[in-house]
Write a structure and sequence with these properties.
The chain starts with 10 loop residues before the first helix and ends with a helix. Helix content is 39%, strand content 14%. The chain has 15 helices and twelve strands. Helix 1 runs antiparallel to helix 3, helix 4 runs parallel beside helix 5 and helix 13 crosses helix 15. With 403 residues, it is α/β, with parallel strands linked by helices. Strands 1-7-6-5-4-2-3 form a seven-stranded mixed beta sheet, with helices on both faces. A five-stranded mixed beta sheet has the order 8-9-12-11-10.
Length: 403
């Protein structure tokens, strides 16, 4: 939906330049439009705009120029025709499901997805008659076996996953979905379009929590769905207008500015994460390091193919321990010994953030669900930032050296 003048430009350029037209004041940095309503030039124009017969801004719940700039820029980076911004990543998933599903429909999701995603789709939407099958992330046969022709409407995968970095074959899942008339949605939060563009492998919808790397400094909540114009205009937009799951102009402006440095940040943080993963993999107190960029990762070759040769900026590792109880104690010891790094459940910040998934992001899941997803009590997730790598290692070593 962006202006054709942007056609043919490289993504790095689009990330810095693409936006709605400047105002009459000629601002170089994109304007922040803090308004809930818009003055109409005439009653006739107002009627056409509210009736959808003419483009134009009418009310903050349906559109805003700053939000439009963010949507157009992210769509261009993901290689989709359009984008719909939302208040958060979870609201993007809510909007997608409300727009596409009804009672009796069936969804297939990975058991390794973010805990809130599993709860929202598997539990909350079940109350409205939507059935969900949960399958192993990397088991293509399980995805295929779970399909119910004529009933399955959506396959939803997260790749790499949070927190273990499991990778799914996007092209293979797209083929499975399309063979039965279903759609494939991919959560691209961990890789971002700087490393991975799922539509190039056949995905229909790309979901983002802009709270993470798109912002890049842990400042605001934001979400987005990138897809075809048909899906955005005919499916997502009507539901968003009626539900109010909109992104605020200020948050859109913050994430819009974050996109300008996305490519540089992702490459720098991914390089740091790779070095940290190698260090952790050889550490005597670490049982296993999880990182798609490691040759030891089960889906390493696939990750390198789909993620432009990078493993992303998130590393997870299990501390050594003789029992789950001791593993939890050892993990807490590492986290509580940190003096520099942040004990924080977010990710995507320029600051390195560490967390204990079993008691935070996946804390509301049952122990059986956590075990199925590989979330052990000794697991620590590190979202690597831009501090000097030696300082990151030294701060983790404080606790690891005590194990």
């Amino acid at each position: 939906m962006a202006d054709p003048k942007w056609d043919g430009l490289q993504r790095e350029t689009l990330a810095v330049r693409l936006a709605v037209e400047r105002s009459q004041y000629g601002e170089n940095s994109e304007a922040l439009y803090l308004t809930s309503g818009y003055v109409q030039p005439s009653a006739e124009v107002s009627a056409r705009r509210f009736g959808g017969l003419e483009e134009g801004y009418t009310y903050g719940r349906s559109s805003n120029p700053t939000v439009t700039s963010f949507e157009q820029r992210l769509a261009a980076l993901e290689g989709t025709q359009a984008c719909m911004a939302t208040a958060s990543g979870m609201s993007a998933i809510m909007l997608m499901c409300f727009s596409l599903l009804k009672a009796g429909d069936h969804v297939i999701i990975s058991q390794s997805m973010f805990g809130s995603t599993l709860k929202l789709i598997g539990s909350e939407f079940a109350r409205f008659g939507v059935e969900t099958s949960v399958v192993p992330q990397t088991d293509l046969a399980a995805w295929k076996a779970a399909i119910r022709p004529g009933v399955t409407r959506l396959l939803f995968a997260e790749t790499p996953t949070n927190p273990l970095g499991e990778v799914c074959d996007i092209a293979a899942l797209a083929e499975l979905a399309h063979d039965v008339g279903a759609l494939l949605a991919v959560d691209n939060c961990f890789a971002t379009p700087a490393l991975q563009r799922p539509v190039e492998f056949g995905a229909d919808i790309v979901m983002h929590s802009g709270t993470k790397y798109l912002d890049g400094q842990g400042r605001v909540l934001a979400g987005a769905l990138c897809a075809s114009e048909q899906l955005v205009l005919e499916k997502f937009l009507p539901v968003q207008k009626n539900s109010g799951m909109v992104l605020s102009p200020f948050n859109a402006w913050v994430v819009l500015k974050g996109l300008e440095t996305l490519d540089l940040r992702m490459k720098a943080q991914s390089a740091q994460a790779h070095e940290l993963a190698l260090w952790l993999e050889s550490h005597p107190a670490v049982a296993r390091a999880h990182y798609p960029g490691l040759a030891s990762h089960p889906q390493h070759a696939l990750a390198m193919k789909q993620m432009n040769g990078c493993g992303g900026a998130v590393v997870s590792f299990d501390v050594k321990a003789p029992s789950p109880e001791q593993a939890r104690a050892n993990a807490f010891q590492v986290l509580d010994s940190m003096q520099l790094l942040s004990l924080c459940t977010n990710l995507g910040d320029t600051k390195t953030l560490c967390t204990h998934p079993a008691s935070t992001s996946h804390g509301k899941l049952s122990e059986a669900q956590r075990q199925a997803a590989g979330i052990n009590q000794g697991l620590i997730r590190v979202a690597v930032g831009l501090e000097h790598l030696d300082d990151i290692k030294a701060d983790l070593e404080r606790g690891l050296s005590l194990i």
